[in-house]
Amino acid sequence: DSGVTQTPKHLITATGQRVTLRCSPRSGDLSVYWYQQSLDQGLQFLIQYYNGEERAKGNILERFSAQQFPDLHSELNLSSLELGDSALYFCASSPHRPPYEQYFGPGTRLTVT
Amino acid sequence: SQQGEEDPQALSIQEGENATMNCSYKTSINNLQWYRQNSGRGLVHLILIRSNEREKHSGRLRVTLDTSKKSSSLLITASRAADTASYFCATDAPGRRTGNQFYFGTGTSLTVIP
User: Fold this and answer.
1) Residue A79 forms contact with B (CB below 8 Å)
2) Which residues in chain A are contacts of B33 at CB distance < 8 A?
3) Residue A96 pLDDT > 90, yes or no?
4) Cβ-contact B21, B32 below 8 angstroms
5) C-beta of residue A7 within 8 angstroms of C-beta of residue A58
6) How many Å apart are CA A108 and CA A1, to the nearest integer?
7) Counting Cβ atoms within 10 Å, is residue A69 exposed (0-12), middle (13-18) or buried (19+)?
8) pLDDT (tens digit per residue) in A4-53
9) Does A12 touch chain B (CB under 8 A)?
10) Which residues from chain B sit within 8 angstroms of residue A30, using beta carbons?
């Protein structure tokens, strides 16, 4: 158990809909990262937050957005969903000191039908 | 673009044999990390090697780093069926002070046959 929690575990929704994925980092970790893992794209970095502020942006679509709240939990919002958005979405957290090893949550499996 | 690229894509060995997988990356790094992922589960951090280190051991794991060739290898000795998983290398993006953006490769899928 990494100490990172994600909800829900599974999500099935239709195209065009909007969903919110939630992540709670390990106790004491200030950084939260979001990744998308699909069969054909591998593990893609989406976005990083540190103590409530956006720190780095990867391959995140404009239809996707994220935020980190004062209690350090984070939410990833996916809107206007397309079939291609079906994937595993992982959240990871890391300590605020080098070497920043990441601790991954169990993931949310999103299926868009 | 992704930094780490693992090779081979898939590897199948008998229990007790050693497994070697390689990672190549494109630009300078502060450190390189290896992660394991069991099917459909989250990634688990295995080992980290800093850019000024050449070799590191952790239990049955041995990692080497050659910064001149921009490559790393992960050796798992005396493999067990429980080692069956995908293995990813991750490289950081130097220059960030608070947290780092990591680039993950596409992974090596290891199957250990009992």
Assistant:
1) no
2) 99, 101-102
3) no
4) no
5) no
6) 16
7) exposed
8) 999 999 999 999 999 999 999 999 999 999 999 987 777 888 999 999 99
9) no
10) 98-99
Say how far residue B39 (Cα) sits from the centre of its chain: 16
SS3 B82: helix
Q: What is the pLDDT of residue B6?
A: 85
- In angstroms, the Cα distances linking A84 to A14, A16, A81, B77, B104 are 12, 12, 8, 39, 20
Nearest Cα to Cα of residue B60 among B19, B88, B89: B19
pLDDT digit string, tens, across residues B33-51: 999 999 888 899 999 999 9
Closest Cα in chain B to A47: B101
Task: Output the six-digit token pair for B63.
Answer: 């990692």
Would you state the structure tokens that stand for residue A34, as one six-digit string?
């979001």
